Amino acid sequence: MDKIIRLPLGALASNCYLIPADDNKVIVVDPASTGEVMAIIDSNDRELGAIIITHGHYDHFAGAASLHNRTGAPIYAPDLDSEMFQSADKSWSWFMGGIPFEPIKPDHLFGDGEEFSLFDTSFLALNAPGHTAGSCLLLCDKWDCIFSGDVIFCGSVGRTDGYSGSPVQERETLKKIMLIEHNYKIFCGHGDPTDINTEKRTNPYLLEL
């Protein structure tokens, strides 16, 4: 592996990202299932080193418990969505087409502005509420990108009608995105990648601010 791999997984085609790191490890962001993730890791003779969750909806962490139990890889997740990781109802688990709910207890809960390093890769977590209270943007300078979860998509944004969602907070989050000067590539929770400048120029939710 010499690049980030995007895997649309589960009933909602939620994007899971496999990030190659040193020491023959792979960092996985938002695993909606287990088999496909491990198949790629095993076929590349690598090991799962860590799991990162961007927010508390089950279509983004349905495979996390199984991956953790199978490999021992620690789970990193936003502190403000802690309740959702334990609740089938709050995490909208029914959207996953009957897959049994498996709660997770993250090994590390990160907060706004926290930077953490996994192997040779550092992440800066910026709280970006609206879709959920704990939704975040994960800036990764090594790959010149942002893992946005469901905060922002190519031409759209995340819905705000779930547990802890807030259209008022989402609007403030979008204002913060407009202030990001560097043209990071955006790896979204659903759909194709985009970038900051493209969204500033074409995303209707940003244009109406």
By CATH, the superfamily comes out as: Ribonuclease Z/Hydroxyacylglutathione hydrolase-like
- Shape label: globular
Query: Can you tell me the CATH architecture?
Result: 4-Layer Sandwich
Low-pLDDT stretches are none
Q: What's the number of domains?
A: 1
What is the average per-residue confidence, as pLDDT, rounded to a whole number? Answer: 97
> In CATH, what is the class?
Alpha Beta
Straight-line distance between termini: 40 Å
- Beta percentage is 25-35%
Helix residue percentage: 10-25%
- Walk across the major sheet and give the strand order: 1-2-3-4-5-6
CATH topology: Metallo-beta-lactamase, Chain A
Order of helices and strands: EEEHEHEEEEEEEEHEEHH
The biggest sheet, with number of strands, parallel, antiparallel or mixed sense and barrel status, is: 6 strands, mixed
Give the helix/strand class.
Answer: alpha/beta
Tell me which oligomeric state these chains represent.
single chain
What is the rounded Rg? Answer: 16 Å
Distinct helical segment count: 5
Number of E-type strands: 14
Summarize the structure.
The chain has helices at 35-43, 64-71, 167-178, 196-202, 204-207, and strands at residues 5-9, 14-20, 25-29, 47-52, 75-78, 108-110, 115-118, 121-127, 136-140, 145-149, 152-153, 156-157, 185-188, 194-195.
